[in-house]
Amino acid sequence: MLKGGNATIYVADMDRAVTFYTETLGLRLLFRAGDHWASIDAGDGLQLGLHPATAHGPTPGTVGAVTVGFTVDEPIEQVIATLEERGVTLEGPVVDDAARLKLAFFADPDGNPLYMTELAGR
């Protein structure tokens, strides 16, 4: 019945957010309507919608307002090294459950929580 959609992330600065998600994380910009909206292709059918902060929406970076998880397509250590070179700081050590997955947590420039997952056997 329902198909498609996005995870909307409220941001304080659209240019800064688009730069982070495209240049820092290497995702693809699908569409941008000035400072009103940007659609980011995060792969495997996941789209992120970047929306400016409004009086009626959540405050950018409010913990728990949104969490977006990415699946990596190479060893998580390589992805972490690349992102650290681009200025991303991990929030704590990598969670390593070798039998199932590895998780690494970080945030975007507005403080919105993000994480990446390496699934065992992929």
Automatic annotation (TrEMBL):
PROSITE patterns per UniProt: VOC
InterPro entries assigned: Glyas_Bleomycin-R_OHBP_Dase (IPR029068), Glyas_Fos-R_dOase_dom (IPR004360), VOC_core (IPR037523)
TM segment ranges: none
Domain of life: Bacteria
Domain VOC intervals: 3-119
A Pfam family the protein falls into: Glyoxalase
Protein's name according to its UniProt entry: VOC family protein
